[in-house]
From TrEMBL:
<keyword id="KW-0456">Lyase</keyword>
<comment type="pathway">
    <text>Porphyrin-containing compound metabolism; protoheme biosynthesis.</text>
</comment>
<comment type="similarity">
    <text>Belongs to the ferrochelatase family.</text>
</comment>
<dbReference type="Pfam" id="PF00762">
    <property type="entry name" value="Ferrochelatase"/>
</dbReference>
<feature type="binding site">
    <location>
        <position position="124"/>
    </location>
    <ligand>
        <name>Fe-coproporphyrin III</name>
    </ligand>
</feature>
<dbReference type="GO" id="GO:0004325">
    <property type="term" value="F:ferrochelatase activity"/>
</dbReference>
<dbReference type="GO" id="GO:0005737">
    <property type="term" value="C:cytoplasm"/>
</dbReference>
<comment type="function">
    <text>Involved in coproporphyrin-dependent heme b biosynthesis. Catalyzes the insertion of ferrous iron into coproporphyrin III to form Fe-coproporphyrin III.</text>
</comment>
<dbReference type="InterPro" id="IPR033659">
    <property type="entry name" value="Ferrochelatase_N"/>
</dbReference>
<keyword id="KW-0408">Iron</keyword>
<feature type="binding site">
    <location>
        <position position="184"/>
    </location>
    <ligand>
        <name>Fe(2+)</name>
    </ligand>
</feature>
<keyword id="KW-0350">Heme biosynthesis</keyword>
<dbReference type="InterPro" id="IPR033644">
    <property type="entry name" value="Ferrochelatase_C"/>
</dbReference>
<dbReference type="InterPro" id="IPR001015">
    <property type="entry name" value="Ferrochelatase"/>
</dbReference>
<dbReference type="GO" id="GO:0046872">
    <property type="term" value="F:metal ion binding"/>
</dbReference>
<feature type="binding site">
    <location>
        <position position="55"/>
    </location>
    <ligand>
        <name>Fe-coproporphyrin III</name>
    </ligand>
</feature>
<keyword id="KW-0963">Cytoplasm</keyword>
């Protein structure tokens, strides 16, 4: 049985290098037309070379696809699953061309990104539109499921993984351990332009409002009394351009000065433990914590948690039914970013 009205599911992700010789061409793809200093690029290249040029993100996409396929099969959802990346093979454009050759007409897609802002949402919609245009009139219709930041399928794995991380601290350090909810920094102008135009999200736009609510929800559901806060990581761009702060490393140093002895970082701005998590948290932030004599544990991101995988199917059903987006916060989430939504500034 096909799954009305769709005839395929498409995972759209970022892509990452899988060998040393992929690193520079990958970084060129990511930064084309972007204002990123050379030194930053050289530095980011080193993060990848440390892992023999292999980003974990493609393996994580393959694992997620395998989990989605078996979840679909178990629930009787008969949709072939395709995969296309914005910056590395399999490239989105080639996947859309393949779907056209396979006779696929209407596709439901998921971006590996939970929040609303230009880089996490609009850029995916724009790249899907460009890929369809390149294929021409035979290209399938492609609808994206909504940003899922406040769906229980995203929140519940985060709660569980935060609890697991707390359990990994020495027992006498657990009570009172600080939680640092970490998300990707973006330029403040991009943050302010995030979300639906005209909606009063407050300073930092939809992105900061969503991150603030999700940190509150996860720490509330944890049901333990840990001080928590929102921090940012992986800043890029020229120093003259303001990006969201505070940086995770700066906060770790402050907390140490204030007498904190144990910290759990929760990479809740990400769907999987890709390079920005394993390098920027597991290496850099861990080293900062070590220098300051603090215990440091990093929670897992949702990855292939069964609740997260089930969420994908639930959101496909939600989109198929044209139902109101269901979430655990009062923040609006649109299926299709309206015109002007999540614009760059
Ligand atoms: C919000 C956000 C997410 C999270 C949500 C989402 O997924 O959307 C994300 C994810 C990712 N970012 C990634 C890698 C990179 N991001 C870069 C640069 C940038 N990211 C930005 C934002 C985000 N990025 C921004 C505003 C820039 C500046 C340039 C621009 O204005 O667009 C650069 C260039 C070098 C540098 O500047 O760091 C690289 C290499 C990888 C792959 C990791 C791997 O290989 O495992 C992933 C999943
Ligand atoms: Fe990025």
């Amino acid at each position: 049985m096909p799954y009305e009205p769709y005839d395929a599911f498409l995972l759209v992700s970022f892509g990452g290098p899988e060998a040393n010789e992929d690193v520079i061409p990958f970084l060129e793809n990511v930064t084309r037309g972007r204002n990123i200093p050379r030194e930053r690029l050289a530095e980011v290249g080193q993060h990848y070379y440390l892992y023999d040029g292999v980003s974990p993100i493609n393996r994580q996409c393959r694992d997620l696809i395998a989990a989605i396929r078996s979840d679909f099969a178990g629930a009787g959802v008969d949709l072939p699953v395709y995969w296309g990346n914005r910056f590395w093979t399999p490239m989105l454009g080639e996947t859309v061309a393949q779907m056209a050759r396979d006779g696929i007409r209407r596709v439901v897609a998921m971006a590996t990104s939970a929040y609303s802002n230009y880089s996490s949402h609009r850029a995916y919609l724009d790249d899907i539109a460009a890929a369809r245009e390149a294929v021409g009139p035979d290209a399938p219709e492609i609808e994206l499921i909504r940003p899922f930041f406040d769906h229980p399928g995203f929140i519940e794995p985060l709660v569980e993984h935060t609890r697991d991380a707390l359990d990994r601290l020495p027992e006498d350090r657990r009570a009172g351990a600080h939680l640092l909810f970490s998300a990707h920094s973006i330029p403040t102008a991009m943050a302010e332009a995030s979300g639906a135009p005209g909606h009063a999200y407050g300073p930092g736009g939809a992105y900061v409002a969503q991150l603030t609510e999700v940190a509150r929800l996860v720490s509330e559901r944890l049901g333990e009394d840990h001080p928590y806060e929102l921090v940012y990581q992986s800043r890029s761009g020229p120093p003259s351009q303001p990006w969201l702060e505070p940086d995770v490393n700066d906060r770790l140093a402050d907390l140490a000065r204030q007498g904190a002895t144990a910290v759990v970082t929760v990479p809740y701005g990400f769907v999987s433990d890709h390079m920005e998590v394993v390098y920027d948290l597991d290496n850099e932030a861990r080293e900062t914590a070590r220098e300051h004599g603090m215990h440091f544990v990093r929670a897992l991101s949702p990855g292939t948690h069964p609740r997260f995988v089930a969420m994908v199917r639930e959101l496909v059903a939600e989109r198929a039914a044209g139902a109101e987006p269901f979430g655990l916060t009062a923040l609006p989430a649109c299926h299709d970013c309206p015109e002007g939504c999540c614009s760059q500034r």
